[in-house]
Design a protein that fits this description.
By secondary structure, the chain is of the alpha+beta class. It is built from six helices and eight strands. The strands form two sheets. The protein has a four-stranded mixed β-sheet with strand order 4-1-7-8. Strands 3-2-5-6 form a four-stranded antiparallel β-sheet. It is globular, with a radius of gyration of 20 Å. The N and C termini lie far apart (55 Å). The N terminus is likely disordered.
């Protein structure tokens, strides 16, 4: 029995468990070969890591990191005014990224939640474009989508990202109401990111 337990413990110790965040990306457009991919903060233009597209792929090994949301930015040239930009949740595990005609992330729980939000925004834009709604109705409905998405993610960094990056769509009263309904953890994270 003791020998069996030692073998089981040895096998468990050899199992590879990711210790930090790794981002593995694929770039479909060959014109981006050799171009820089930047990892930036979501609210400032500050770049905190970069790598190069090689053989249509790129990789970031971030090591131990607190969960958060960053931006991946891929420029065709240094003066590219419309780079490919994609929010990505940095958390323990391997994040899969595709930058092409469609851009998306997967591989971790937060990236799945972030992708759900981004797809909801895309669907909203498509639907509103087809309906021909007036600006006030679009603004009101989009605020409702944002509020719902924040409250669904009030216990994780995706909710913080949405609130921080889309907060200008809310009145001060709406912001206060959302924070009250989101709870203590959310309020603390918003206060931390304000400093």
């Amino acid at each position: 029995m003791t020998a069996f337990l030692i073998v089981v413990l040895s096998l468990c110790a050899c199992t590879s468990v990711p210790k930090g965040c790794t981002i593995e990306g694929a770039v479909k457009d060959k014109s981006y070969e050799g171009k820089q991919v930047y990892l930036r903060h979501t609210l400032t233009p500050e770049t905190y890591d970069s790598t190069i597209v090689k053989n249509g792929t790129f990789r970031f090994a971030l090591g131990e990191t607190s969960p958060g949301v960053s931006l991946l930015v891929l420029k065709a040239s240094s003066d590219d005014l419309f780079p490919i930009t994609l929010p990505v949740a940095t958390e323990k595990g391997t994040v899969k990224v595709s930058l092409g005609e469609l851009v998306f992330t997967s591989g971790t729980a937060l990236n799945d939640k972030l992708q759900d939000f981004l797809l909801a925004v895309d669907r909203f834009s498509d639907e509103m474009g087809k309906k021909g709604e007036n600006q006030e109705k679009i603004r009101k409905d989009f605020s409702s989508l944002l509020e719902s998405s924040i409250l669904q993610n009030r216990d994780n960094e995706v909710g913080v990202y949405i609130f921080r990056n889309y907060g200008s769509r809310f009145t001060p009263e709406q912001k206060s109401d959302i924070m009250d309904r989101a709870g203590e953890w959310f309020i603390k994270r918003i206060e931390e990111t304000n400093n």
